[in-house]
Every structure is written in structure tokens, then in C-alpha cells.
Amino acid sequence: MLITEESLRILEMNKANLEDTLDQTRIMFETGMAEQIDVDQLSITVNQLENSRKSLERNLELNYNLLRFQLGLEPDVELSLSEGLEALFKSARPESALLASTSFEQNPTYQMLKTQEEISKKMLAMQKWNYAPTLAGFYNYNAKIKTTNFDMNPNHLAGLTLSVPIFSSGMRKSRVDQAKIDHQMARLNVEILEDQLSMQEKQIRYNLQSALENYQTQWENVDVARRVYTNYERKYEQGMASSLDLTQANGNYLDAQSNYLQAILEVMNAKLALDKLSNQL
């Protein structure tokens, strides 16, 4: 939506400038200082910009309607975005993301596999404890109503019983072996995911770096295209350039602006992918 709004703003500003130029050209034509082809050429360009403006407005309204639906709002509720495209781009700080390290500790899939690994480790330890000796204590009190002098049985009796498993069934060993396999598989799954996440991170960082470089190039192209258009606009007013030169320069300027906005979108998408990888949204 921000891209569409910015595109609409640029288009409306450009259209207004060309409309002023068209009005001046009509006056020049009436005084014999311009030809009909100049008026026609500019009129065609202005009409094309108007069609593009209407298309962008419909697309923007469609996006707002979708947002209202997602938020559970009535169709007639007014919505406006509080932050512009440039402000959002600066707050995202995509350049800093390239310098920051990425941790997978918060990645949901990584957390799930690490939990499974811990569970399998505890299950293995539990199965191994089945081989450990068991120590049990006991206490017995025997109350006697009548006793003889020859009764050697104590009233209180306490003791410990130690049970050492010398022989064990194959079932017990099988359970330990299976627990070992489960733990090894759980650990292997974690290692595989770590490798996958590492590869994804490298690719995303490569995409982000490329997107930032393209963004810088497109920003410079917009500046150049703006200067070229302004120069042709001045020359046209002085009769040193044709209407065709002016409309071509205007088209190049709009193309440069479109490429610039697309470059911003690519940077934001790459930054978003990096944030998703580490669950930093």
C-alpha cells in the first residue's frame, strides 16, 4: 500500500507539471509559437497519466478494503497510514541488518527440534537407569504383650536391601538401543536444520546486499532522470526542444521513479525474510 500511495503521489505531481506545460503550449500554439503536433503529443501523455492515476487509485482503494476486512472494520471506515514509505524504510535500517549477527535460537522450527532432542536425551538416561542397582529401606516394629527371657527378637527392626541386576532381558537392552537411536536422530535433525538455516541466511544476506546496491543505483538514476527532465522542460519553454523530447524525458523520469520504488520493495522484502529467519518480527 505504501508503494502504491507513493506511486500515486509521484504520478499526480508529474501529471500536474505536464498539465501546466500543456496549457502553456496551447497558448504558444494560438500565438503561432508552437505546432498542433506539440499540443497533441502533450495531450496524449497527459491522458495516459490520467488513466494510470485512476488505475492506481482503484488499486489503492482495493488494498484499503482488504485491510478493513482483515481488521474486521466496516467498509466505510476511514483509514490512513501513519508512516510514509521513506520513514518506514529508514526505521527498518536494512544496512544495519547486514552487520548484525543472526541467531536461530528463536526460530520456531529450531526450538521444536531442540526440545525433541532434550526429550530424547532424557528418555535415554531413563532407560539406562534400568541397569542401575536399586536400594530399598525397610523398618518393622513388633509390639509384644508377653515375652520370655529367651526371646531374642527385637521390637524394632530396620535395614537396607540392595538389588544388583546381574542378568537382564534382551528387551531392556533393546529399549536402551532404541533410545540411543532416537537421541542420535534427534541430534542429527538439529544439525541438518542448522545447516539449512545457515544456507538460507547466506542467501538472504546476499539478496539483501544486492537489493541495497540496486536501491542506491535506482536512487541515483531518479536524480539523473529528474535533472534531465527539468533541463528538457526548460529547453522546451525556450523553443530549443520538441514536445517529443519532453515526453520522452518525462517517461524516463517516471520509469526511474518506478524502478526506485521497486528497489525499496525488494530491500524491505529481503530484510523481512532475514527477520523471519530469526523470528525477530
What does this structure look like?
It is built from 7 helices and 2 strands; from the N terminus they run αααααββαα. It is mainly alpha-helical and 281 residues long. The chain folds into 2 domains: 1-82; 93-132 and 168-280, Up-down Bundle (Outer membrane efflux proteins (OEP)), CATH 1.20.1600. The longest helix is centred in the last third of the chain and has 68 residues, at 170-237. The mean pLDDT is 83.
**What value does the Rg take, in angstroms?**
39 Å
Count of DSSP helices? 7
CATH H level of the largest domain: which superfamily? Outer membrane efflux proteins (OEP)
Overall average pLDDT: 83
User: What is the strand tally?
Assistant: 2
Q: Structural class, please?
A: mainly alpha
CATH architecture of the largest domain: Up-down Bundle
**CATH top level label of the largest domain:** Mainly Alpha
Tell me the domain tally: 2
Largest sheet: 2 strands, antiparallel
Beta-sheet strand percentage?
A: 5-15%
The shape, in one word, is elongated
Strand order of the largest sheet: 1-2
- Poorly predicted sequence stretches spanning 5 or more consecutive residues: none
First-to-last CA distance = 19 Å
Question: If you consult CATH, what is the topology of the largest domain?
Answer: Outer membrane efflux proteins (OEP)
Helical content class: over 70%
* Order of secondary-structure elements: HHHHHEEHH
Descriptors:
2 strands; 281 residues; single chain; two-stranded antiparallel sheet; Outer membrane efflux proteins (OEP); elongated; 2 domains; mainly alpha
